[in-house]
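Lab manual, section 2.4: Encoding a predicted structure.

Procedure: take the sequence of the chain (520 residues), apply the prediction step described in section 2.3, and record the output as structure tokens. A sample record is shown.
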Amino acid sequence: MSASRRRRLLAGVLTLAVALTATACSGGSEGGEADANTLTMMVPLFGTAPDPKGEIQQAVEKLIGKKLNITWVPNADYNEKTNVTLASSSLPDVMVIQDNKGPSFVKSAEAGAFWDLTDKLDKYPNLKAKSEQAFINSKTNGKNYGVYRVRPLLRSAIMIRRDWLEKLNLKMPETTDDLYEIAKAFTEKDPDGNGKKDTYGLILPKWPGVNFSASSPYNVMDVWFGTPNNYGMRDGKLVPEFDVPEFWEAQKYIKRFIDEGLTNPDWATLDTAKWDDPFIQGKGGITIDVNVRAGALFDKFKELDAKTYDQKVTMAGNLSRPDGKKFSYPFTGYNGIVAVSKQKIRTEQQLDEVLKVLDKLASKEGAILVNNGIEGRNFKVENGFAVKLNDQDPAMKVIANDVEKAFIQLGMTSSVGVAGEAYEWARPSEAEKEWIKRRDELMELDLQTAVHDPSLPVIAVTQVEKGATLNPIVTDGRIKYLAGEITEEQYKAEIKRWYDSGGTQILSELQAGIAKLGLN
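Recorded output:
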């Protein structure tokens, strides 16, 4: 989960959450007692809801020794449904919370609607934190109100057209200067060999979200030059990413791509939903995003031409800045949490039973079941990788839907790009196998120079109340500066306006919270 999600919160939503939290946390008779034999859940859904009598749900129930009553909610509606559920008098026993920094959840949790699991997970071997940093990042004002769902802590990378690199006899980039030279060559030296000047280097999108730090390629490049990752400590003082000298070096670097025509002309408006298009269509040759994006690009090229798809994609990691120093952009290491409500799970004994169930789900057997399916039924294992069996069989398609679109959301130890206890799906070509190996090597390498955001466990009230007004000051200012619509001095004036309008208070609240947690 990116930092943007936790900060894109409106004051109106906060007010609603405060008003309704008492109902959500009441634990009165309307909530009822927990059924010892059935676990109720609310989980996001990305496809067709599984049949409760389907093979996967039956297998999961057999594993955990309980019946499951799952409310599957389409992902597009999940946050809204979460807010409604939190304000209701009937919480499920277990909920996937996608935004555990959101005002509705924070108010509900701090009022007692969910169990504080901060010091309770060590006795459950499969629920222990896989990463101390991710465990810290997933905290809600210093407490863990759920089991975090594992995601790669370091997954920023650069996807590059491999065929273009080879055509122009270029090496993989190691520095920011290298990337600029590749982009320049992709723009000026006809990498597709069609005799026309109709290509460019770096593909930049308009990044969604109202927070400045949004895990975008712009933020990745900022960190390459040595800025904080959203916020950071300088001389004992918390400072934002956009108010350090290195930030301006990064902006001049990005602006050079734009001014020299080395990026897509529609960089300020390109929808991220269409971000792959220029790469696939042979218009642009470089994308800075999450490393699993390379796998998606392989798949899209394969749909176009199964014979040559493996020649089109290669991947580099984070880059050193011109002086040789390297700073890598990490992610949070988690994507939401699995929280246990106190409405029906009222005693420590009941909580222990639920956590034992979650521990089974997070075990090797459980991880394989919710990430891969049933071994020998819809997949087999070859050389440590999962290989699909009879994937055109209608019954196998049902299993694939139930796993990939639904039950995978209950995975706490494995995910796409982090196989964990589950098996990674085998890829057929040598190029893809090479990519997987390189992906894992780069994640380990770049993690050594990762720049973490110390503010992630803390929530600033002013950010919640005023963020929707404050954030666009700096986000819009960056776009205008890069587009040449305002000068550096004018952008600095906008940054001062951010401070004067509430930014100073945000920094004060965040720094106080960081100090309280002993993270500074």
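Check your result against the sample. The chain has two domains: 3-151+333-422, 156-329+451-455+477-489.
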